[in-house]
Amino acid sequence: ILNVEQSPQSLHVQEGDSTNFTCSFPSSNFYALHWYRWETAKSPEALFVMTLNGDEKKKGRISATLNTKEGYSYLYIKGSQPEDSATYLCALCGGSNYKLTFGKGTLLTVNP
Amino acid sequence: ETGVTQTPRHLVMGMTNKKSLKCEQHLGHNAMYWYKQSAKKPLELMFVYSLEERVENNSVPSRFSPECPNSSHLFLHLHTLQPEDSALYLCASSLQGGQPQHFGDGTRLSIL
After folding, report:
1. Which one of A43, A48, A49, A104 makes the best mutation probe of the B interface by having the most chain B beta carbons within 10 Å?
2. In 3D, which of A73, A105, A94 has the Cα closest to residue B97?
3. Span B9-44, pLDDT tens digits
4. Low-confidence ranges of chain A (pLDDT < 70)
5. Considering only CB atoms, which chain B residues are within 8 Å of A44?
6. Distance from CA of B99 to the nearest CA of A (A)
């Protein structure tokens, strides 16, 4: 059973603050690491799929890095806005190209 | 609008009922997935179909029976469910394994 850990569980920041969270995973049998954003009353939305050690991806104010050797990925949000409030999920694709093992997520609340 | 549609959005059923959940995608994707989201637990993969063939069955009890008649449609047939099966059931699709997944809005299932 793969164990994907996310920290912190929840986070409150002020509008304009920059923030980051962590996803830890076993480094063996690594295929890819996915990040999703899940807003309340909506469906999870794919942010990034990362496959290479040292990979860095960016989408607007959100970016992510990947270290497959030590088994972690960071998600950064620059200048948080209230609309960034959501649960951010990471998922490890390991052992099978189809099977994602999700973490419990980090719930981000951005206060105006 | 994610391109993945799930019906019904809400379902209340007794333990002896038989019902089905439906998922439809018109994204031209080849892989479709069923996930279960229970309270305070991570998203849990149940089944994966690729080109209408089941490629993953994540030790799901036989009271859940998936069906994939074609690459655009996925069903989850429910029979003799237990109260602990009450959860949010999410469908997703991807172009192929390892690609970002597109999720539906889910079916909120309550077992009386």
Report:
1. A43
2. A94
3. 999 998 888 999 999 999 999 999 999 999 989 999
4. 1
5. 43, 90, 92, 101, 103
6. 7
